[in-house]
Amino acid sequence: MDLFDESIVPEHARAVKAEARAFAEEHVAPVAAEYYESGEYPWEVLEAGMDAGLVAQDLPEEYGGRGLSLQAVLGMAEELYRADAGIALTLQLASFGAEILVEHGDEDLKAEYLPPVANNDQLTGLAVSEPETGSNLAGMTTTAEREGDEWVLNGEKYWIGNGVEADWLTVYAKTGDDPKNPYGNYSLFVVPTDVDGYHAEHIPEKIGMRASKQAHVTFEDCRIPADHLIGEEGAGFLALADFFNHGRVVVGGHGLGLAAAAIEEAWDFVHEREAWGQPISEFQSVKHDLADMRLDFEAARALVWRAADRVAAEEDPGYWAALAKTAGTEAAADCAETAMQLHGGRSVLAERRISRIYRDVRIPVVYEGANPVQRDLIYGQAPR
Questions:
Q1: Residue 214, SS3?
Q2: Disulfide: which of 167, 267, 350, 362 matches 122 by Cβ 3.0-4.6 Å?
Q3: Annotation says 368 is catalytic
Q4: Is the pTM of this model over 0.90?
């Protein structure tokens, strides 16, 4: 069964998508269950992905990357998440946030920090969410105060991919206190993880995506050079919003990969198992369930790929990104739920791939802006 019809994929993205599929089949799928059970960080798979040219390669060629397009990264996401969401997230988080530096940083800062990531010598990450605040970008409390030729950071960040493993993070912090302009109070910074006052520890085990590690990060009088400010002071919210428009399209692809995996598991199971003297697949209700899964998947996939083109062209990007993220991740949740029902009692066995998928799909509906927030964005930004 091949659910990823290539005709919807722009021609320039097809080769990279094929590379990702081959890599996923050889390096991800065979070890997915093992890493899910152990909860270990998949260093060996990550290094293999680096060798294959599939990690951090959306960074521009001038800094050592391949300059992969949004559509190419989306195609990779479909293939990698179909094989295993936790390992896939680790691979795609290796350069998470570096694109903000590409778009908004000055040349000296980019020249120092981007090549090591593009050349796979360093890992990076993005620190936005906090223990008490997730989707409210104007509610973050971590501060950065200017003292002479330094910025001093204090506060906490939570759910930070590579918070422990990264060499540097892009950090979103409060630099102003204007109640009339709450979104102008935030800025972005490059923060090396080896500076004094930076502390990170892994968050306790999650129910899903266990091969991906997130951290609780604290800043205690963490001092960085003044020139580590990315772009203009107070412009952090707008830069982050632009970054998330691209990221949410890719998260839609996370959902599509998971949805495809759920459909595959359900299809195989109902055609192999018998009840009342016939294959389960012969029952009309089962056929309808499988048909509904395909309806959800195909509708979501058409929307996500259309959104990728719109966002890449900067055509109502916030609206299309929110549509893509919501449709893709909710198709995954719906397909996984139906697949669990079709598996019956066997669905709850930890050794079953469908039980892993079912737990994994609970996570993308939350990260990069919970889906209720996406619905606010869809309503608020819909073209009129």
A1: strand
A2: 167
A3: yes
A4: yes
